[in-house]
Design a protein that fits this description.
This protein has three domains: 6-156, no CATH class; 178-339; 344-471, no CATH class. It has helices at 19-28, 56-62, 104-113, 119-122, 127-139, 152-156, 178-182, 185-191, 201-210, 285-292, 351-362, 375-382, 388-395, 411-419, 427-435, 454-467; strands at 6-7, 41-45, 63-68, 74-78, 87-91, 97-101, 219-220, 225-230, 235-240, 251-252, 257-259, 261-267, 297-300, 308-316, 323-329, 333-339, 344-346, 400-401, 437-439, 445-447. The protein is an alpha+beta fold. It is 29% helix and 19% strand. It contains 16 helices and 20 strands.
């Protein structure tokens, strides 16, 4: 097999190749492709202007790419300033921006352990090469310098001050339920972190001290969640600012970045303790039923399937019912901890969202209890005294969620498919049939609809009544 391609003889204009990068590059150039993971080349080049035209000048001045990944993503060296070592950052092909390591030395050490959180580099097939890299680092006496945690996304944003209109962060009081107290100490410790901010001292102590991992410094619209996996501990945590729960509002860090919450976690067998007495190697649903009682319900294995084949058991872990434990059985046991949150039907509402709200309000499809501060306005929409778009503007600042609809069997699932173009259902197609079509703002056909008037709602109602017939009052 051919060796890796290395092109580090010349740095982009205004930069120099660090001696360590040149040395490790010479070594990598003698390694067989695939033994250190999957990447196209170790090559110094400017970060493409197209990746972020607004920040291109800063990136050209203070950063350059040095490793190209198969999906088009890049790893870059970034100068944080203030005499800090150059950090390593991911310049993602889908716009992702996150810190990989606080220095080149730290990055190489993480790479040698398969802990960069860059899947192509941490691939299991690269284990043999990583051992050789670890030996090379030891022989060269490469050690990571002490450095303050670098936040690439915030740096990219210029560390801009959050908007003055940002809501204050709420501190949540976690009052455990009886079920919470029955959990083993390891799972209970993890569960107690659900809903906490990433900068909470207890979160930092757990992730860094117990798991030996790093807490993500921020998230953004392009990278709304970051996973931290500690396979040896049987834990994978999801950090996100985008919990669709009104009690967990996004917390701006800069103008375009956020301080994430601990939003959910998978718990696996290597955690080293059973969950509510259920053994990890449970073989049949009947065994869980014997231990936990009848399932809370059943769900489809995938969102586009109708058969409800997966049994699940839900348990609230705090008295406010924000944090839940879920055990599922689908040939094997899976365990999750999560902050309760909805699913986005329409994250960025437009005129069609207003039309649907007008229709849904008059048909009793919305859960009025979700809108205590806007009950009068919802009633005005339901009685056709206000338009759905008025309600969207005032009551849905973060978009329309599935749990804004009534909790009726199958309703939210149907709405999810309808809004997400699944199983032959799509709101856009239905409204194009009703109103005709025209070119939309992004080049795709869109309904000819400029205003969610009640005449427009009435025109769409016959078709929507067919879609939602099962949940309409007889």
């Amino acid at each position: 097999m051919a060796n890796y391609t290395v092109k580090l003889s010349k740095a982009p204009k205004g930069h120099e190749i660090p001696p360590l990068l040149a040395d490790v590059g010479a070594w990598i150039g003698n390694q067989s492709h695939g033994t250190l993971g999957w990447f196209d080349a170790l090559a110094a080049e400017p970060v493409p202007k197209e990746w972020n035209p607004e920040k291109a000048d800063r990136l050209h001045r203070d950063a350059f790419a040095f490793l190209q990944l198969p999906d088009g993503s890049l790893l870059a060296l970034v100068n944080p300033g203030a005499d800090a070592p150059w950090a390593v950052a991911l310049v993602g092909s889908e716009g992702e921006a996150r810190t990989v390591a606080n220095s080149l030395e730290e990055f190489l050490a993480l790479w040698a352990r398969g802990e960069t959180e860059v899947s192509d580099l941490d691939d299991e097939e690269g284990a043999s090469g990583r051992k050789a890299l670890a030996a090379w680092l030891k022989a060269k006496k490469v050690r990571a310098p002490k450095a303050k945690d670098f936040d690439f996304a915030a740096w990219l944003d210029g560390d801009a001050v959050p908007p003055a209109s940002a809501p204050p962060a709420t501190v949540h009081t976690f009052v455990p339920t009886a079920v919470m107290k029955k959990l083993g100490p390891k799972v209970q410790q993890l569960a107690a972190l659900m809903g906490r901010r990433a900068d909470d001292p207890e979160v930092i102590a757990y992730v860094t001290g117990v798991l030996g991992k790093k807490v993500p410094a921020s998230t953004s619209e392009n990278t709304d969640s970051v996973n931290v996996e500690a396979a040896k501990h049987g834990v994978e945590i999801v950090f996100s600012h985008d919990i669709l729960n009104d009690a967990f509002l996004p917390i701006p860090k800069t103008a375009k970045t956020f301080i994430p919450y601990v939003s959910s976690a998978w718990v696996r067998s290597k955690v080293g303790e059973d969950v509510l007495g259920v053994p990890w190697k449970v073989k049949a649903e009947a065994e869980l039923t014997k231990l936990l009682g009848p399932p809370t319900g059943r769900s489809a294995a995938f969102a586009d399937e109708d058969a409800l084949t997966v049994a699940y058991w839900d348990f609230a872990l705090d008295t406010a019912e924000h944090v839940w434990l879920t055990l599922e059985f689908d040939e094997a046991l899976s365990v999750t901890l999560a902050v309760e949150g909805g699913g986005a039907l329409e994250r960025y509402p437009d005129v069609t969202t207003g039309l649907f709200i007008g229709y849904a309000a008059t048909r009793g499809l919305l859960d009025a209890s979700r809108f205590p501060a806007h009950r009068a306005l919802l009633e005005a929409v339901a009685t056709r005294k206000a338009k759905g778009s008025e309600f969207v503007k005032q009551a849905l600042p973060r978009g329309l969620w599935d749990n804004h609809l009534r909790e009726a069997p199958g309703l939210r699932e149907l709405a999810w498919r309808w809004f997400h173009n699944m199983n032959g259902l799509w709101i856009t197609d239905d409204l194009k049939k009703t109103f005709g079509k025209r070119a939309g703002p992004h080049g795709h056909d869109a309904p000819k609809l400029d205003d969610d008037t009640w005449d427009a709602v009435d025109k769409a109602a016959p078709l929507l009544d067919k879609r939602f017939a099962e949940w309409l009052a007889k």
